[in-house]
Design brief:
Layout: E1 10-14, E2 17-25, H1 28-33, E3 44-48, E4 53-55, E5 63-68, E6 74-81, E7 86-88, E8 94-99, E9 112-116
Parallel strand pairs: 2-3
Antiparallel strand pairs: 1-2, 1-9, 3-8, 4-7, 5-6, 5-8
Length: 122
């Protein structure tokens, strides 16, 4: 439901350090809605899979997005993606959305690891 906040389902790590607590969106409704109607909290992320493109229509604030391959290697990082935009990354298996500035320590070539603590998809 728009505006309703699910609890984090995973820990997102890069190089062994925790980057964020994440929700995982694998169902079509969860992937389409993402963070629409909410404002992401610091140290929070949304892992969207499968996903090679994101939109920010309906978003209130800019976000950072990291696109990753199936092995978690970061292909592209888009910082401060403004509302009402679309961004694509051919070849990406998943997209990770962060609050603006939340992907500061994430760079192309890094490997993001998703450690699920609750496997029920959002």
């Amino acid at each position: 439901m728009v505006g309703q906040r699910a609890r984090p389902q995973a820990v997102l790590r890069s190089g062994g350090r925790e980057v964020a607590r994440a929700r995982v969106a694998r169902t079509v409704p969860a992937r389409l809605l993402g963070w629409i109607g909410t404002v992401p909290r610091p140290q929070e992320a949304l892992w969207i899979e499968p996903c090679a493109a994101v939109h920010t229509f309906g978003m209130r604030v800019p976000i950072d997005v990291a696109f990753v391959r199936p092995d978690g290697k970061v292909l592209r990082v888009v910082r401060s993606l403004q509302p009402c935009r679309i961004v694509l990354c051919p070849g990406a298996a998943a997209a990770v959305e962060f609050p603006e500035g939340g992907a500061t320590g994430v760079h192309e070539g890094d490997v993001l690891e998703l450690e699920e603590i609750d496997r029920a998809p959002v």
